[in-house]
Amino acid sequence: xxxxxxxxxxxxxxxxxxxxxxxxxxxxxxxxxxxxxxxxxxxxxxxxxxxxxxxxxxxxxxxxxxxxxxxxxxxxxxxxxxxxxxxxxxxxxxxxxxxxxxxxxxxxxxxxxxxxxxxxxxxxxxxxxxxxxxxxxxxxxxxxxxxxxxxxxxxxxxxxxxxxxxxxxxxxxxxxxxxxxxxxxxxxxxxxxxxxxxxxxxxxxxxxxxxxxxxxxxxxxxxxxxxxxxxxxxxxxxxxxxxxxxxxxxxxxxxxxxxxxxxxxxxxxxxxxxxxxxxxxxxxxxxxxxxxxxxxxxxxxxxxxxxxxxxxxxxxxxxxxxxxxxxxxxxxxxxxxxxxxxxxxxxxxxxxxxxxxxxxxxxxxxxxxxxxxxxxxxxxxxxxxxxxxxxxxxxxxxxxxxxxxxxxxxxxxxxxxxxxxxxxxxxxxxxxxx
Length: 434
Known about the structure:
This protein folds into 2 domains: 9-182 and 315-363, Periplasmic binding protein-like II (D-Maltodextrin-Binding Protein, domain 2, 3-Layer(aba) Sandwich); 186-310 and 403-433, 3-Layer(aba) Sandwich (D-Maltodextrin-Binding Protein, domain 2), CATH 3.40.190.10. Helix content is 37%, strand content 17%. The protein contains 16 helices and 18 strands. Strands 1, 2, 3, 4, 8, 14, 15 and 18 form an 8-stranded mixed beta sheet that branches. A 5-stranded mixed beta sheet has the order 11-10-12-9-13, with helices on both faces. Strands 5-7-6 form a 3-stranded antiparallel beta sheet, with no helix packed on it. A hairpin with a 5-residue loop joins strand 16 (384-385) and strand 17. Helix 1 crosses helix 11 (327-340). The longest helix is centred in the N-terminal third of the chain and has 19 residues, at 9-27.
C-alpha cells in the first residue's frame, strides 16, 4: 500500500512541527485538548493534509469510524482490513507501511518486542482513568480472579518510553489503548440443535456430526479447543493459555479424532464465512463472534450466543502507534485516540454487541433503553437497532448472557500466545490438514 503523504514521515513531521510550535505555544494549547476548533488556525490548516494509515481486522476497521474522524477531526484515516495472521505479519515486517496498528492483545505479545510500536504516554490520554480495569490490573472488580491466557493487562504496559519489555504493573507507558473486547462463546441454531446446549463439550457431541464448525485462527481456535477438552474432562491444563507440548498434543489429538470422524462441516477464518455457514443451516453449532450472531438474526433466522457453564473465552484489541510517527502526525494520532475513547465509537461498538473500553463516555452516546439492553441485561423496551439503523432485536428481547458484569465477570481465558507458540501453530496446521 503506497504512502499518500508527501515526503518521509520524519521530514514532514519536523517541518510542520517547527511551523506549529510558535503559534501553539503562544495560544497555550496542548495536544489532546479536545475539539479541533480549540487549536490554532495553523493546526486546523495543516491537519487537513494529514493521512494516518491504519491496519487491523474487519471487526473494528470500520468505514463509519473513518468517516466520523474526517468530520470531527479533519484529517484522513485510511483503513486496511486484514485477517489476524496477516495483521501480525504486516505489523512486524512492514512497520513503515502503517501509522496505527489496530491489533489484539495476543498479537501485541508477538510484535511489541520487535520495537515497531512506540509506547504511549498515559498523561496525554484524557480518559485513561476511566478505562475498564481489566486492561489496567486484569480484574473487573477488586475480587475478580485473573483469567488464563494473554490477559490484556499483562502486555498493556512497558517499563519506559523506549522499552520493549512488558511491565508487571501499570506504568506511564502503555502499549495499546484498549478499544474493543468481548466474551466469546458458541453460536447455535436453537431451531436445529434439538436440545438445550450448556457446555463447551457439546461442540463435539456426535449428534451434531457434520454440522459443527471451529474457527481457524490458531491462537484463538486452540483456546476454543481447550475449553472443549477441559469441559469433556479429557485434558487437565496447568494453564490453558500457556500449554505444554504434551497438553497441545493431547488437545489436538482429540480434535483430529473428531475431525476424522466427520464432526466438522468446515473451519472458518472470516466473519462472513461464519454467518453464511450458520444462516444456511450447514452448521448448527460453532465458534462464533457476537456481531455474526446478530447478522444471522437480522436475516430472520434464529441464532443464539449461548452462555456455557464453563464460562467465556475473551479477547480484546487496541490501537498502537507506529515507531516512526513524529511531529504533527504523532499529535494527530493522540488526538484520534482521545477521540476514540470519547464516546461516539464506544456507543457504535456497544450497539454491535462488543464492549467499549471507557463505559461512561459510550453511555452518553446511547439511549437509556440501548444501555439497559446491551450493558445491563434488561429486556428491551423498544426495538434494538444496529448502528446502521436495522432492527437487531425486537422489543422484549434480552441479551444472550445478560449484563456486562455477568458476561465479562465469567471469562475463563483470553486468546493467547504461548511459550510454545511455534509448536502449537505447526500442530494446529497439521490438525486442519488431517
